[in-house]
Amino acid sequence: MPAPLIEESIEIAGTPEQVWSVVSDLARMGEWSPQCKKMFIFGGPVKPGTRTLNINRRGPLLWPTRAKVVVFETNREIAWKIAENTTVWAYRITETGDGVTVTQSRTAPGGKTTALSSFLVDKAFGGNDAFETELAAGMRESLGKIKRAVEN
Length: 152
Description:
- The protein is α+β, with helices and mostly antiparallel strands.
- It has 4 helices and 7 strands.
- The protein starts with a strand and ends with a helix.
């Protein structure tokens, strides 16, 4: 059973606007994420309701997912819901005295995903615990890359 919430945070020496310009540009997701290699954006600039086609990779496995932007609060939060497993991925920006805290999260409402997703995680990704440990490590990697992009 998936964890209802996986999240990681990082402190970044930047403004909410600087971080927003990076995390809201979903076409750049392949630069940050070790798993989502490309997000194709449909319908112009990213906004509420924007749909994406995502190409994911883990070792020799390659698979597409579809998403819809469900939260879009400029300089604060962006989130998208994955159609295939109903999880919601988000970046939340919180201003601090010295910059911002950026939190990346994956929410599985009610601690559930689809039956197909659960089956694939179990059979192709080594089980839920191992996969979610990998997702958390990937979040830390993504946040580190975002931090470097903003601060450099």
